[in-house]
Amino acid sequence: MIRKLILSTVLLLSIVMVSCTQKANDTTTSKADSNTTVEQNKDNSNATKSNDTQSKSEPKVNKIKINIYSIDENSLEPDQSGNIEVNENSTLEDKLKQLSKALSEKKFDNLPIEVKSIDTVNGKKVATINLADANNKKWISKFQGSTGGSVTSGTLIENFLQSNNKSRGEWIDGVKFLYNNEKIEYEHVSNLSEVQYRN
């Protein structure tokens, strides 16, 4: 009888001890999980703060639209056929260079259009644009014929003056063109050799 009592007591004690040990492990695991969650929340919070700081330190880039014009062969009137976006804070020369590149690609078969200078003439900003040929004289075909010459000169003048574009920001007042760094002396594009001013 005493033996049974001792065995029962030992059995009960071992059950109690196993139960207590299991609870202690659960509590430790729960605390560890809790600490992990707190650390993850801190990391997420720091990441959010870091992203907020980055977005505050990077200046917002404002864009303006520069129109691309085509000239109707029948009416010889300009018609907006597209636009490019440029950084509003770019220099005027950089904006003109971006326009020159787009104009060359879209309207003039990639023929070189160079921004030579922007000068002040009688208080007005006048850009000098060079139409360059590498001895292949491809620009000359654009100067030929009354309609062809009018379309070429109208396209160049309208695009560089941006007269109908009110959202262009700071811009030039006038434009003058050269052909291979010399005055243009072709009958059908004679207005390219004189300074053309915005209305």
UniProtKB/TrEMBL annotation:
The keyword Signal applies. PROSITE patterns: PROKAR_LIPOPROTEIN (PS51257). Keywords: Signal. Residues 1-24 form the signal peptide. Residues 24-54 have a biased composition (Polar residues). It comes from the Bacteria. Residues 24-59 are annotated as: Disordered. The keyword Signal applies. This is Lipoprotein. It comes from Clostridium saccharoperbutylacetonicum N1-4(HMT).
